[in-house]
Amino acid sequence: MAELVSQAWAEALGMAGSDREHRHRAPGAISAAALRTHGALCAGLGRGVPVTALSAQPMVRGLATFLAVYAAAEAAVKAETGAGRGPGEPPDAGPGTRRRR
Prior knowledge:
With 101 residues, the protein is mainly α. The chain is built from four helices and no strands. The chain has helices spanning 2-16, 29-45, 52-56, 60-81. The longest helix is centred in the C-terminal third of the chain and has 22 residues, at 60-81. The radius of gyration is 18 Å and the shape is elongated. The two termini are 35 Å apart.
């Protein structure tokens, strides 16, 4: 997991580029890199992950640990409620019933 996180950030930040003369990145480059990283993580894991995890866990090890725990929790919820359900999604009430939104 840590390797996936590290590789996703390295590729995204490499694409962000930097202005060597002024020693800073273009405005918005870090935000764009975070979005590219999020996309790479979702693709690499084969499932969605909260984009807020990238700012809440800015270090590779912390984000990798969070993603492992998140995946385990997601799997537990799916096992408990039935395949195809994600965290926080209620089980079907049965045929002919409607869910409130």
